[in-house]
Write a structure and sequence with these properties.
305 residues; alpha/beta; eight-stranded mixed beta sheet; elongated
């Protein structure tokens, strides 16, 4: 079985490696020559220098997996592929695209007789060794073509992957997954911050994290990762308090508003990330001045340069 993999960044390359280990012939392409060369050097995966070469190297009917950032990179690549793919081929989008974009891509490709499957992928840098969680959306016939790939990428052939529904459903479920992830991460962060603030109790938060990993209700993989980095550096003094948001959390919150479904934990977790990015700085200054105005409370002023 063959598959073309477009996008050989860290995650895309690891997925290509896992497929090759599972006996799939992978032909890869990345616009970065260094990315292509690094993977080809390993000797298990063939790489090509253009999308046209990738399409030409695959035997029809073709499977092509796009693993690129959502937005312009994915849109541009899918547009180019529309001229290269043919009836009976299936295009798979494994990036974190917005589900509405995936629904549109499915309609546009269906007009050409090309199938489309959107796959939400979870597992990060650990997926190469322990497998990826896969959430698939698409027509039954198209997903059937992708199932052998899913069985190799997933933790086991039967666990960790699911055909969630029609086109767009895979990315929709992954969007909600990431919203939940935001909330879980925020709860852990706040709990550890609360304990760290009680200097009088001399709490060893690294040992507490390790202890919580065993037998507690809140044990999880996120807690495993937290315990590991706290073991290395419990103070985290070299880490800037800046948390990026890649988009899925925003989409989840907007969807909740559109559907009228209350998601306060996800909403506040997203807003906390905005705060860490300095987007609450002016608002905090306003608050400080208001407290000074009505109560005469002192404010901290930056030294004049």
């Amino acid at each position: 079985m063959q598959i073309g993999m477009i996008g050989l960044g860290r995650m895309g390359a690891n997925m290509a490696r896992r497929l090759a280990r599972g006996g799939i012939e992978v032909i890869g392409f990345d616009r970065d020559p260094a990315g292509r060369a690094a993977l080809a050097k390993e000797g298990h995966i063939k790489t090509v220098e253009s999308l046209a070469a990738l399409a030409g190297a695959l035997t029809a009917p073709r499977l092509v997996w796009v693993m690129l950032p959502s937005g312009a990179p994915t849109e541009q690549t899918i547009t180019e592929l529309r001229a290269l793919l043919a009836r009976g081929d299936v295009l798979i989008d494994g990036a974190n695209a917005h589900f509405a974009d995936s629904q549109r891509h499915a309609r546009e490709l269906a007009a050409l007789g090309v199938g489309f499957v959107d796959v939400g992928v979870s597992g990060g840098i650990w997926g190469l060794d322990i497998g990826y969680g896969l959430m698939l959306g698409g027509a039954e016939a198209d997903v059937e073509r992708v199932k052998p790939i899913a069985r190799i990428l997933a933790p086991t052939p039967t666990d960790g992957w699911l055909h969630c529904g029609p086109a767009g459903a895979g990315h929709y479920v992954k969007m909600v997954h990431n919203g939940i992830e935001y909330g879980l991460m925020q709860a852990y962060a706040e709990g550890f911050a609360l304990m760290q603030a009680r200097a009088d109790m001399q709490l060893d938060i690294a040992k507490i994290a390790e202890s919580w990993r065993h037998g507690t209700v809140i044990r999880s993989w996120l807690l495993d990762l937290t315990a590991e980095f706290l073991k290395q550096d419990a103070a985290l003094t070299t880490v800037e308090p800046f948390v990026a948001d890649s988009g899925e959390g925003r989409w989840t919150v907007l969807e909740a508003i559109q559907q009228g479904v209350p998601t306060p934990v996800m909403n506040l977790a997203l807003l906390s990330r905005f705060a860490s990015q300095g987007k609450d700085d002016f608002g905090a200054r306003i608050l400080a001045k208001m407290r000074q105005g009505f109560g005469g409370h002192a404010i901290k002023e930056k030294p004049k340069s």
